[in-house]
Amino acid sequence: GLKSAGGHVLVTARTPPARWNIGLADLASRLKGSPVAEITAPDDALLAALLVKHFSDRQMKVDAEVVAYLVPRMDRTFRAAADLVAAIDAEALALKRGVTVPLARAVLERG
What we know:
mainly alpha, Helicase, Ruva Protein, domain 3, 5 helices
């Protein structure tokens, strides 16, 4: 089996196993006894780091003031950070401009 092969199982869900309605008592017990980690919305520092990383991945140089402008105004999700950087990149390319606070503001306002 999985255990004898030294394997592991990673389960992701929106609710913890303790709240699942599982008919098999043995499985329910094992799941309820398993370690649980919750991934919460990123805080300001993590959002800023995500933006910097996504801009860097696209080889874009962006001033800290742009990141500081975006963080309190954007949706607080990992996906939103990636999508926002992609939208800003597309806008900057279309306008053939660098990324500035006014450009970032325009992208945010369009949603």
